[in-house]
From TrEMBL:
Keywords: Methyltransferase, Transferase. This is SAM-dependent methyltransferase. It comes from Actinopolyspora erythraea. The lineage of its organism: Bacteria, Bacillati, Actinomycetota, Actinomycetes, Actinopolysporales. The keyword NADP does not apply. Residues 90-192 form the Methyltransferase domain. It comes from the Bacteria. Coiled coil: none annotated. InterPro entries: CFA/CMAS, Methyltransf_25, SAM-dependent_MTases_sf. GO terms for biological process: methylation.
Length: 306
């Protein structure tokens, strides 16, 4: 194996404080890659899909729908940002198995520095192999780091111009969401952009409708946030909202969720437990909430004040 294709090893950022949720969440993601591919598709994107039904006469795979959604978010960011996007330092917070970092490297070929932060070592190891295989070793740093400790990332004097946060704040209790947005406010350059995808709930505090039936809640789905709260925290930390919309549509999100459920039931007919069972069950509850308009997948472009 050449030096260039050897895996990118994650740098471990030592925690300032303990996170009571971390171990449970890390365990929730701890299935092997083949198992996850059976559920999520080859690219292992784990944040919705755009099906665009009239424009899609043939069946659209999870990979296509997921990639289409991320591309749509990047197009919206380019269209709505105050200044042309030409980032020099990009952060993908909660970077999953690495697809988005690879896509960001293609989308912004001039960006010399792409960084992924994740609490899951196994995901980061997959990321490290994927990105090295695509010749991105020189441009990428991976950090085994909790969002709680973003302030400990190296080179605080070199700000980030673009931060992607897809599906990660979903797992955060409000205290961690507020702490990570405050840390980003210090790390993002004036005019820098946040591209966010998150699930937000009407009447988040009052609603008793179940999403999960698992009292252990491996994915920490109980931390529901309303659109108003989510945006208020961004604004209070100096981020202006440049674009905010329901994307993918509620029906596309339900479509995506039920495909995951169908994949689980087809590939594991003997049944599943733990985090996969939570996905299988939550897929129904969340789809119903989406279709009744009680929840929505929001795509947000926020910009740090100049
Ligand atoms: C739903 S997945 C989304 C993955 C990816 N962003 C995507 O678009 O497909 C959420 C990701 O956030 C990571 N994550 C969750 N809590 C985190 C935390 N406190 N700090 C860092 N990463 C976290 C998970 O390990 C996982 O990779």
């Amino acid at each position: 194996m050449s030096e260039e294709t050897a895996r990118i090893e994650p740098v471990v950022i030592r925690a300032e404080s303990t996170d009571p949720q971390q171990e449970r969440l890390v365990n929730a993601y701890e299935y092997d890659v083949d198992t996850w591919r059976k559920v999520l598709g080859h690219n292992l994107l784990f944040e919705w899909g755009v099906y665009d039904h009239p424009a899609s006469p043939r069946p659209v795979s999870l990979d296509e729908a997921g990639a289409r959604f991320f591309d749509r978010q990047l197009e919206l960011a380019e269209r709505n940002a105050s200044n042309p996007l030409d980032p020099r330092r990009i952060l993908d917070l909660g970077c999953g198995w690495g697809y988005c970092l690879r896509r960001l490297a293609q989308w912004f070929p001039r960006c010399p520095r792409l960084e992924g932060v994740n609490i899951s070592r196994s995901q980061l190891e997959h990321c490290g192999s994927l990105l090295a295989e695509h010749g991105l070793k020189q441009r990428t740093n991976l950090y085994l780091c909790n969002a709680r400790d973003l302030r400990l990332l190296p080179d605080a004097d070199v700000g980030h111009d673009l931060v992607v946060m897809r599906g990660v704040a979903t797992h955060f209790p409000p205290e961690l969401y507020e702490r990570s947005v405050a840390a980003l406010a210090d790390r993002v350059v004036p005019g820098g952009a946040l591209v966010i995808s998150d699930t937000l709930y009407d009447n988040a505090a009052d609603s008793t409708a179940a999403i999960t039936e698992d009292e252990n809640d491996p994915f920490e789905l109980r931390h529901r946030k309303s659109p108003e709260y989510f945006v208020r925290v961004l604004r209070e930390n100096g981020f202006a909202i440049r674009d905010m919309r329901v994307l993918p549509s509620n029906t596309d999100v339900a479509h995506w969720l039920l495909e995951l459920r169908s994949n689980i039931e087809t590939h594991f007919p003997e049944g599943v437990t733990g985090a996969l069972e939570e996905i299988r069950v939550a897929a129904v509850h969340l789809s119903v909430m989406m279709l009744c308009g009680q929840a929505g997948a929001y795509s947000i472009l926020a910009e740090r004040a100049e």
